[in-house]
Amino acid sequence: MLTRRGLIRVGAATTLSGAFTGVALAPLVMAQATERGTSALAEPEPFRTKLPTLPVLTPVSVTGGVDRYVVPVRSARATILPGALTDVITFNGSFPGPTIKARSGRPVSVTYRNQLQDPLSVHLHGGSVAAADDGAPMDTFEPGESRTYLYPNRQSHASLWYHDHAHHSESEHVYRGLSGSYLLTDADELALPLPAGSYDVPITLRDAHFDESGQLVYVMDEIFGRPTLLTNGKPAPYFEVAARKYRFRLLNSSNLRHLRLRLADSSAITQIGSDGGLLPRPHDTDALWLSPGERADVVIDFSRYPVGTQLVLENTVGPTGDSEEVRPVLRFDVNRKVQDPSSVPAVLRTLPAQPEASQERSMELNMSQKSDGSWIATINDKVYDPNRIDINVQKDTAEIWTITNPSEFVPHNFHVHLVQFRVIERNGEAPSPGETGLKDTIRMAPGDTVRIKLHFNSYRGTYVYHCHMMDHSAMGMMAQMKIS
Known about the structure:
The protein has 484 residues and is mainly beta. 7% of the residues lie in helices and 40% in strands. It has 5 helices and 30 strands. The protein has helices spanning 4-14, 26-35, 170-175, 187-190, 470-474; strands at residues 67-78, 86-91, 100-103, 108-114, 122-125, 146-151, 158-164, 179-185, 200-208, 228-231, 234-235, 238-242, 245-252, 259-263, 269-274, 277-285, 288-290, 295-301, 310-317, 324-336, 357-369, 375-379, 391-393, 398-404, 412-416, 422-426, 441-444, 449-455, 461-466, 478-483. The strands form 6 sheets. Strands 11-10-9-13-18-15-16 form a 7-stranded mixed beta sheet, with no helix packed on it. Strand 19 and strand 20 form a beta hairpin. The longest helix has 11 residues, at 4-14. It starts with a helix and ends with a strand.
């Protein structure tokens, strides 16, 4: 594993590879990897491994109305590919990290013990937390130290996740395993007759590049060189399901890869939620976009298939989301009939009202090339500076931000800490049904302009907003807002 200084050197040496000039540089990226002795392993045969169930953490204490967890952050070896042990870095020894289950109104305290050789900063992605507990990029704790984060859970239900956010090293750390799910529920969600228990399944998706010995290869911004898709840490596993409805909580934890998911028979997937919890109403779709960091809750009804059916969930786009490339993600094997008391109501929730916006701002996400051939990642032409406040926001006000990706080739996305926002408009049109709920991360394809409305009604302090293609934020596509 690279240290932070080593990562910075590699980032400077490899710059931004092919992602910013198109597919033509993909062979160059792979050639660079091969020169380092990291030629890619052949694709493993799909559907040979059962889908792992992600472990759920047990609190060490529940006294005083607070669920307390202690999580070592340490190196481990994981069985990802057949016949190989892969070196990874983990939360609590598992790859992907364990799931934390929480309840609105009941605080959670997590103490992370840093047993690595690099500083860490753990961010609860989508969480409404005080600035001191946000996991800011420069607010790190050193090797051998511990850090306790308090999550008050004063927000409504949502499928959140947590990951390392230490600036310059977050990209490699997350790539090598430092992420996990944080599922927050509340009375409103629990009152609905949605699939629950063993029929409510977290699914973490990502891509990876393995060398011939089965080790993860990390090259900064290797957007075309990570061919293996992992589902809960395994390449294209199978999952035995009953002929009934299941709820799947999908997370794209990739550093860079955009996904477009569909069932191979083009049948309907019912989306019921996005980043910030349930949508106002469910909607059926034949394809689902997820950029890095985005989540979607979906229901698939397997009762429409006879026992013995094998149904494949596919990803249908290339690494940047601009080309067709069909790859298997997960196979569902319908193997039994059971009773199904669950249903998907026509109305799922009523979103909270927001005040009129008192301020409008514009954010432009850009990559520019310097005379020496290296690249700069910016928001509004500025590289992230932790000593600079980019915008000042008044607490208890609402604002409208217009986010633009002016590139003809380079995809981005956009994540705001602290706030679950609403999408007002995408490219001059009303948002799609999947973007009508609360969001904290939005896809920004080349040429996209998206308008969002944010209500700053929780905490004061300094928070970042950035591209959540992590290599881009690690290279400076990040800025700071101060809420006062």
